[in-house]
Structures are given as structure tokens and as C-alpha cells.
């Protein structure tokens, strides 16, 4: 069969949609040519307006929750949970489904007792209440936050047959707060103050050294997330947002900003969040999350259940270095690629949604997405990643994901060698 | 005092922030120069990762909820609740706080039993399951939805001393779904099919006539809202999103799209959602929500509690006709205006966040915001609105809001004549 060009592909898709809806209607259960068996809600009164002062999802969506991997950590107090990306329709991650990662459990911080100390090599040390911080000039920006261990289980081989568990240590939200630069300007930094150590107020006192140049660029002391106060799991009442950098440097439950001349080389940047290389040396400070993309439909959790015909491939792409420039999708395991459509808005260090019309002929297929960001960086294959990193690292797995579609419509996680 | 230009104003603001933080520190309680009295969360373990598969807000935010006006409706089953805009940090409205309006309560629709019928003057009537609808090419876009009765209580005079209750019948979300045009193309419309009647499956069978030209433009059959399935109060599992138009035409719990030659003139476009004019005639089909803005800080719920000094004025603006072009803020009841800063992204028929540095001298003030959209439309005063509409209409109150700041820092809702 001659490969259709992109315009033809779309027309084919639209026409095929019509045909296949009719075809699948015959096969699907319940039969869509019949009215619903139960529509009692059309003949009765529903719930009153005072039933839910703070709303909740439908009871039919109770399976859409964060999940964790039982064997990943010896304790649920220093563990991670994963966003159900297979159920995320757009670029915004619901606050209730935003992935979690913490080192001593979620603390319950009283905002009235909250203090932020700014200390070290500053001209004027500060001790600020939350109300005071909220008086400064503010910004509101949509950014993703991703754990560098996202995809860690997939380094040696395809291991978990789940989009949620292979890619779900990421979320994207509108963060509102004060630029870190504003508070550092207020304290006054010395010319040789080139590093900042944010510390969390959780039991783990999470801390990471950050270079001043990033702190003065786009970091946010955020109190707001997607229309409300930060969630407890995300650092209520105040967290650091370090756009495009590893999740762990986005310190939560913030209590202190220490300013200094050199990095501190804390436990969290030696035993954790550094990579032991083949020669015995440790590679640290790999802050930036390189460009990555993944197809969210179809995926292991969302197979092609309605038989051959028209579907839409959907996915998410992002880059810690800037904006998504384009996403290419392969239907044959990376031999040929087609340019996907990107939904607006396309924002800096933010998820971007992509789609591609897909006529599935009912045969097995290997589908992939590959993002290119506006620095020209191209998402690598797992083979390319293995060449540099070997097969057994923990972090930085931003490789192209391959989903294998079976003739049954089921979808498997596979790695191509 | 010479009025500072904008650049000076900001410098003044930044400098003032520093000074006033120190000044207010002496006045504020608890004193910010002291460490917190309780920081037990720093010395203990928190909640484990499996405690909240679906997350919830902090217990300290329990007062941030939707509210209703007890005397507005004789029953909670045909009523409205209001978004707490005073606690919305950015442009995204939290799903749990998104305003509600319905006519026979919130139905509990089973997505497996859901059907959408497309009927009337079409070439091929359709009866579609939700799974089938979700196969079509999709889009994801951020739009506001506002009830035309938002501000209704304020027509005759300033009545409710609350941002939430005067402006909270609005929310803004990322909506994901299929363009209505895609489904109408699938059914095939006749050249003289100029109207569509969407009908809800709630007990009220809510329906509104929509002109075909809008249906083929940017309307969405949406199943996704801010990272998850639609909430029940927002029409789970499928609603119509009619960007920039009155909330009531964004029909929820959708069950049918009827195509015809003329509008249906339903109950909801005669007794409701039309405006009785002075000459006894009824004005209907006033679909578009004209440009509107409001200052969300300070406001009656969020007074200036920390004494004179630097604050940031914050607010939200939107237009049903396109994008926000600029927002001007007055500190003297509309005599002089300054241009506010707009946060990105600035999107079509979407909330836009604005800010202005504000040095409060401790004296009474009258603050206002005024939006201009990219069609050149300027938000009117209540006096201008009264000239056309009189003092006693229900809908279309998009007038400039005046907040009166008292010497105490308290903020009141007032109307300037």
C-alpha cells in the first residue's frame, strides 16, 4: 500500500472514523444502536448544590488514582506515587493525582507557624511569615515537575507493563508565587554568593545546592497550585519550583534558604541523586530534565478495545530546556516517522499535548513518539542511552518509549534492541 | 505628590517592600523575628505515600469552598454555588471549587449507559457511546465558563460584601474533547441546517438553541477537565463547551444534539436567560459574555491586614470575544488609571491574570480594574450599564467593580454613581 501523505492521512482518518464507528457498533457491547438500558437520572432529581462544598470526582472514576510500586522502597514513608497519565486528558495534572515523592512522609505544616529563613552570605538575613511572602510581586506560570528516577525501572529492560508506572513520576501545574530572585534581592546577595541551599521542614530536612544563576532566573517560591493552595503532598504551604530541573531540587515544605560560596555536597547529592559511573566516579548535579515524550493513548492501560479502524494517537511531550518544537510518531518501531499535531498553548518547560490520526488495520504494530525541543535536542532511543549510561543506572531515562500493539488490541511495553 | 511613572512605581514598590516588611514585622502577630512556636513536623515522620491515592487539600484550607446564597433560589436543587476567587491564585480554577449551576440537581450518569444521539436535519443520524466519541480527533483548550447572572445581585446597588458572591459564578479550566464540528460533519448537515439544540440528560432536560456558525467554530464536546474526567457537577461524562458564551448554553450531561432550520425557543430561552425590557419586549439570545475584570486582592474577603506599605494588587480578566489586550487599574475611583502587568499565557476566551505594585499609604482608597479586549471593547462602568439596561435586570452585569479600602485595611463593595 502506498503510504498516504499527512493530509490524506487525516482525510482517511475522518472517513474511516465514520465507517468504523458503524462497524464497531455491531461488535461493541452494549450495542450503541440501542438506547441506554438505564437512564433513570433523566427522570429524577439529582444532588443539591450544598452537597459538595468541595467537589470530588464521579464514583465511576474511583479507579483513577495515584499508585505506587510495593517493592520500590522498603517504607511507604520514603516512597513515590505515580500520576495516572493514561487518564490525563490534557497538559494540566489534577492536584489530586499529582505524583508524590518524599523522604520522611508528608508533614502537616501549620501556615500560621510557618517561617522562611534567608541566611548565610546575605546583607540582611530575613525571617518571613507566609503572609509577608505573599505581599511581594508574584507570577503564575505553568510548568512540569518530573522526578529524575521517572523510568528508572526500565533501564535494563521493559519491566512494568504500565504507562502510569513507567512514566507517571511527573505532573504539570500552574504554580503561583514569588520569584526566588525577588526574595534574594530583598536579602541582598554578595558578588561571591554563587550557591543557594533550600531546606525543607519535613523530618528528612531535604536539601539541595542550587547555582545562583538558576535561582536568579526563573525559580518560584510557590504557594498556589492549579487554582488553590499547594497540596500537602506538594509542599504546603510553600515549595520551591525550579522549572525544568529534577523534581528533588523543587524543595517542598520550605523552611530555609542558605546562601553561600560553594555547593554543600549534602547527603541528597551524594548517596542520592548522583550516578555511579563505570569507573567508580560519581556524577552529580545533573539537574536539567532532558526532552521526553510518551504516547498516552493507546498504552498498556488503554488498549484498542473496539477493533480495527480509526483511532487518535495522543501523547504528552516536555523539555527542561525550553519549549517543545515538534513531536514525531512512528507506527513501525522507529523506521518511519510522521509529524504530530501540537495543541496550544506551547509553553516553556511545560507539557505539550500532541495527537496523530491513526488508522489501525488490526495487525501488530510498534508505536513510538520522539520529541525535539527548541534547542534542537532530539529524544534518544534506549540503545543510544545505554551507550553512554550502561544498562544499570537509576536516573535520566528519557528514552523513546515503544508500545507494542497486538492483534487483540492489547498494548505491551517493549524495548527494541 | 508627583505621580510616579510606571517604572518608578515598580522601583518604589520593590524598595517599599523591603522597608514595609521590616515595619510590618513589628506590628504583625505572631512576630516574624521569632522562630515558630510549633514546628513539630520537622522532628517527626509524616503521612505515608499510600495514605491518599486521590489527594485532598490541607486541613488548614477547609474554609476554601464553594458557597451559595440561601435566598437566591427556593431550592438547592435548582441553584448556584460560587467559586472562591479570593483564593484562586492563577487562571486555572480547581475542579473542586468550580462554580455550579443546575436546574434539577446533579445527576449520577453511568458512563457505560451514556448515549449521545445526533438527530434532526442530518444525513446520517448517530447514536454514539462515550468510547466511540473518544475515538475522534480531539483538542484540549483552556477556556472560562461564566453564568450570565454573575453579578446579578449588584445591578441595583452594591449588595453583597464578597468577591466570591459578586463574581464567583465563573471558572476557568482546560477542557479536552472532540470539536462539535467533527461530530456534525460525521452526521452530515444539510445546507439549511442552521441551528443545533443540545439537550442535557438531567431531570430538567436543559436545552438551548445554538446557531450553526458557532457550532462549527470552536465548540467542544468535552470529557476532560483539568487533568481528569469531567466532574459530576460539570456534566460528567460529557458536556458542551461553547467558548466565551453564557454558561447555560454549555449544556451538561449531554444526551442529544438536534439539528434544525430555526431556533426552538425553549423554556430556557423565554422564561429564563432572556431579559424583559422596559417596553415589555423580551431580549433573548444574548450569548456572548462581554469583557470583564475584577481585583481579587485586596477584596472584602482579603483585606490589608498588615498595615500600610507595599502590597501587590492582583486580579483576573477575561473576554468572551477573544483575548485580553490590557487591564488598567485605578486607585482613585476611576479618575486615573495605570496599566497592569499581564501574566502569560494570554489565551482566547480564557482568564488572564494581572498584577500592579501598590504602595498603600494607610488612607481610604477606591480601587478598580478595567479590561480592554482585542476587539477594542472596554469594560463599562455600572453607570454606563444602567443607561441601557436600567437598574433591575438579571443578566449581563460586566461592569467595573469598585472596592473601597478603609483606613483599617478592611475592604468594602461599593458602587460609584
From TrEMBL, chains A, B:
Which keywords, in A-to-Z order, does the entry hold?
A: Metal-binding, Molybdenum, Oxidoreductase, Signal
| Keyword Glycosyltransferase included in the entry's annotation | no
Write down the PROSITE patterns for this protein, in alphabetical order.
TAT
Pfam families tied to this protein: Mo-co_dimer (PF03404), Oxidored_molyb (PF00174)
What is a GO molecular function of this protein? Answer: sulfite oxidase activity
List, in alphabetical order, the GO biological process terms annotated in this UniProt record. Answer: sulfur compound metabolic process
Signal sequence span is 1-27
Q: Which InterPro entries match?
A: Ig_E-set, MoCF_OxRdtse_dimer, Mopterin_OxRdtase_euk, OxRdtase_Mopterin-bd_dom, OxRdtase_Mopterin-bd_sf, Sulfite_DH_SoxC, TAT_signal
Q: Which residues form the Oxidoreductase molybdopterin-binding domain?
A: 103-263
Statement: the UniProt record of this protein carries the keyword Metal-binding: yes
Q: What class of enzyme is it?
A: oxidoreductase
Residues covered by the Moybdenum cofactor oxidoreductase dimerisation domain:
286-381
The EC number(s) attached to this protein equal 1.8.2.1
- Specify the domain of life of the species encoding this protein: Bacteria
Cofactor dependence is on:
Mo-molybdopterin
Q: Which PANTHER family match?
A: SULFITE OXIDASE, MITOCHONDRIAL, SULFITE REDUCTASE
Protein known as: Sulfite dehydrogenase
Species the sequence originates in: Acidiphilium acidophilum
**Highest classification ranks of the organism:** Bacteria, Pseudomonadati, Pseudomonadota, Alphaproteobacteria, Acetobacterales
Amino acid at each position: 500500500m502506498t503510504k498516504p501523505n499527512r493530509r490524506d492521512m487525516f482525510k482517511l482518518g475522518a472517513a474511516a472514523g465514520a465507517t468504523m464507528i458503524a462497524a464497531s457498533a455491531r461488535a461493541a457491547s452494549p450495542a450503541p444502536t440501542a438506547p441506554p438500558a438505564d437512564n433513570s437520572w433523566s427522570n429524577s432529581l439529582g444532588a443539591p448544590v450544598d452537597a459538595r462544598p468541595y467537589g470530588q470526582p464521579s464514583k465511576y472514576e474511583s479507579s483513577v488514582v495515584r499508585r505506587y510500586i510495593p517493592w520500590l522502597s522498603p517504607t511507604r514513608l520514603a516512597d513515590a506515587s505515580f500520576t495516572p497519565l493514561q487518564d490525563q486528558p490534557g497538559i494540566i495534572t489534577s492536584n489530586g493525582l499529582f505524583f508524590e515523592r518524599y523522604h520522611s512522609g508528608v508533614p502537616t505544616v501549620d501556615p500560621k507557624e510557618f517561617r522562611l529563613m534567608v541566611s548565610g552570605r546575605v546583607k540582611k538575613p530575613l525571617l518571613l511569615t507566609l503572609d509577608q511572602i505573599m505581599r511581594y510581586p508574584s507570577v503564575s506560570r505553568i510548568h512540569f515537575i518530573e522526578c529524575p528516577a521517572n523510568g528508572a525501572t526500565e533501564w535494563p529492560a521493559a519491566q512494568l507493563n504500565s504507562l502510569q508506572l513507567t512514566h507517571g513520576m511527573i505532573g504539570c501545574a500552574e504554580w503561583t508565587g514569588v520569584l526566588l530572585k525577588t526574595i534574594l534581592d530583598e536579602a541582598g546577595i554578595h558578588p561571591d554568593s554563587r550557591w543557594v541551599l533550600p531546606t525543607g521542614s519535613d523530618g528528612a530536612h531535604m536539601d539541595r545546592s542550587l547555582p545562583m544563576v538558576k535561582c536568579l532566573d526563573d525559580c518560584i517560591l510557590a504557594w498556589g497550585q492549579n487554582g488553590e493552595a499547594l497540596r500537602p503532598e506538594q509542599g504546603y504551604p510553600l515549595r520551591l519550583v525550579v522549572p525544568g530541573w529534577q523534581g528533588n531540587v523543587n524543595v517542598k515544605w520550605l523552611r530555609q534558604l542558605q546562601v553561600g560560596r560553594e555547593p554543600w555536597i549534602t547527603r541528597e547529592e551524594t548517596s542520592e541523586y548522583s550516578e555511579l559511573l563505570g569507573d567508580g566516579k560519581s556524577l552529580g548535579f545533573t539537574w536539567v530534565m532532558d526532552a521526553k515524550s510518551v504516547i498516552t493513548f493507546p498504552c498498556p492501560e488503554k488498549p484498542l478495545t473496539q477493533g480495527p479502524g480509526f483511532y487518535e494517537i495522543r501523547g504528552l511531550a516536555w523539555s527542561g530546556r525550553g519549549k517543545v518544537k515538534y513531536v514525531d510518531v512512528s507506527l513501525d518501531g522507529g523506521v518511519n516517522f510522521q509529524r504530530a499535531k501540537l495543541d496550544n498553548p506551547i509553553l516553556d518547560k511545560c507539557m505539550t499535548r500532541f495527537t496523530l490520526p491513526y488508522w489501525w488495520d488490526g495487525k501488530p504494530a510498534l508505536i513510538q513518539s520522539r520529541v525535539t525541543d527548541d534547542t534542537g535536542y532530539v529524544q534518544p532511543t534506549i540503545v543510544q542511552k545505554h551507550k553512554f549510561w550502561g544498562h544499570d543506572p537509576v536516573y535520566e531515562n528519557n528514552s523513546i518509549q515503544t508500545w507494542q500493539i497486538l492483534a487483540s488490541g492489547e498494548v505491551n511495553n517493549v524495548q527494541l534492541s
